[in-house]
């Protein structure tokens, strides 16, 4: 039995502490046990030799409701059984998880596409602000041209 | 009073996370009171304003009353 309970078919959370990837995957797989497949994406703080830490800020009245709405949009746009979006806020260090996105569907293509769609929107169209610490200095990050191009694929 | 909430780099530029301005507050009043570079960025299309948890489609239509919360939202980045 999974130790955490998830909302179905749309599970969306903004988390200010550790994100338990294994538990979330087990619980999501359990509530979507009859789905043909589950696609999962885990975004982590990479080690590029320079970034010492990453911090994500949210605005409570907007961030989680908008992420839930985005997950709901994925559910109606693709043929899914269920969707999960968990996003960390606060300070994270190398190797730590930032975001977990999962989609359960009868067939794989819808699941892959939904995860891709969700990540493109989380990167550059969600109410989150990211800054990175390099060489002891914090610097605000804005989406790259590539991120905006990725997002434009869905319009 | 209207509570102003600064997000992301706007908090750095303002040197605080929030402050209060006299009510009522419209776009002109806001643009005059915030740091010039915040006002400048708010005029662009990648920064937004929310009033009591609702993002304004037209920032210049801002009309905040006593007790309202106005959040100043710089360009976002997540993931």
UniProtKB/TrEMBL annotation, chain A:
GO molecular-function annotation terms? molybdopterin synthase activity
Q: Does the keyword Iron-sulfur apply?
A: no
EC number(s) recorded for this UniProt protein: 2.8.1.12
Biological process according to GO: Mo-molybdopterin cofactor biosynthetic process
Keywords assigned by UniProt?
Molybdenum cofactor biosynthesis
Q: Which domain of life is it from?
A: Bacteria
> What is its pathway?
Cofactor biosynthesis; molybdopterin biosynthesis
Question: What is the enzyme's main class?
Answer: transferase
Q: Which reaction does it catalyse?
A: 2 [molybdopterin-synthase sulfur-carrier protein]-C-terminal-Gly-aminoethanethioate + cyclic pyranopterin phosphate + H2O = molybdopterin + 2 [molybdopterin-synthase sulfur-carrier protein]-C-terminal Gly-Gly + 2 H(+)
Q: Which CDD domains match?
A: MoaE (cd00756)
Q: Which SUPFAM superfamilies does the record associate with it?
A: Molybdopterin synthase subunit MoaE (SSF54690)
Task: Give one Pfam hit by family name.
Answer: MoaE
Asked if the Swiss-Prot or TrEMBL record annotates the protein with the keyword Coiled coil, the reply is no
Quote the function comment for this protein.
Converts molybdopterin precursor Z into molybdopterin. This requires the incorporation of two sulfur atoms into precursor Z to generate a dithiolene group. The sulfur is provided by MoaD.
Q: How does it assemble?
A: Heterotetramer of 2 MoaD subunits and 2 MoaE subunits. Also stable as homodimer. The enzyme changes between these two forms during catalysis.
Q: What is stated as this protein's family in its record?
A: Belongs to the MoaE family.
User: Which protein is depicted?
Assistant: Molybdopterin synthase catalytic subunit
Species annotation: Parapontixanthobacter aurantiacus
Read off the lineage from the record. Answer: Bacteria, Pseudomonadati, Pseudomonadota, Alphaproteobacteria, Sphingomonadales
From TrEMBL, chain B:
Pfam families from the UniProt entry: ThiS (PF02597)
InterPro entries hit by this protein: Beta-grasp_dom_sf, Mopterin_synth/thiamin_S_b, ThiS/MoaD-like
Give the signal peptide as a residue range, or say none if absent: none
Q: Which domain of life is it from?
A: Bacteria
Q: What is this protein called?
A: MoaD/ThiS family protein
